[in-house]
Recover the amino acids of this structure.
């Protein structure tokens, strides 16, 4: 049985903002806790924008390194998760714009993992394909609001759009999904775009190696 002390996300350390304060106070090794806490959120957010696996982990790494480099600029009146996600989202949008300027068309990459072979993952894979087929602006809002469970206000802040726009895009995205999927497929939304332990560990190790190089 996994105890709180064994959990790499270290819930006993309190909220993100408390961990940030300790990192800034000199316990820089605790930055790894923040990376592990937010790997899945950043993965989902970046993938929703890019629409494929090709650059997602590059975006994640850069977001973490940039956040660490500018951690002293973080203001605790905002949520650390929102601040961090905003960094990743801005980078993802920038990469997408550069790709369009270079007229590079990439085919979506369907990464098959052992976890996807279960019945639950088969349903989630159906949902992922349906979400990937949505127009970009709808997909971004749907993933952040429904899959990642961010609030309307957080989603609006991250995407730099009005809250009413978030609500409208979410309503239209859900309507398109209902046309493509049965209601029971939507119930497995939280299983979509999971960021499993082997990838999480590899990404975390890479981020911390870059962070240590900044010290």
């Amino acid at each position: 049985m996994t105890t709180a002390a064994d959990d790499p996300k270290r819930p006993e350390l309190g909220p993100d903002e408390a961990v940030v304060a300790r990192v800034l106070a000199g316990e820089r090794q605790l930055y790894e806790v923040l990376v592990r806490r937010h790997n899945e959120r950043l993965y989902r957010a970046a993938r929703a924008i890019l629409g494929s696996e090709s650059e997602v982990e590059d975006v994640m790494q850069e977001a973490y390194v940039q956040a660490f480099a500018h951690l002293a600029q973080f203001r605790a009146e905002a949520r650390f998760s929102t601040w961090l996600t905003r960094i990743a989202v801005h980078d993802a949008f920038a990469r997408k714009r550069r790709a369009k300027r270079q007229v590079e068309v990439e085919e979506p990459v369907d990464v098959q993992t052992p976890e996807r072979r279960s019945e639950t993952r088969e349903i989630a894979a159906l949902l992922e394909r349906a979400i990937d087929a949505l127009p970009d602006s709808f997909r971004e809002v749907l993933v952040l609001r429904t899959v990642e469970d961010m609030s309307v206000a957080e989603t609006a802040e991250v995407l730099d759009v009005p809250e009413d726009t978030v609500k409208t895009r979410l309503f239209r995205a859900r309507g398109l999904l209902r046309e493509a999927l049965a209601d029971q497929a939507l119930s497995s939304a939280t299983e979509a775009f999971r960021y499993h332990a082997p990838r999480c560990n590899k990404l975390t190790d890479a981020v911390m190696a870059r962070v240590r190089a900044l010290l």
The chain has ten helices and no strands.
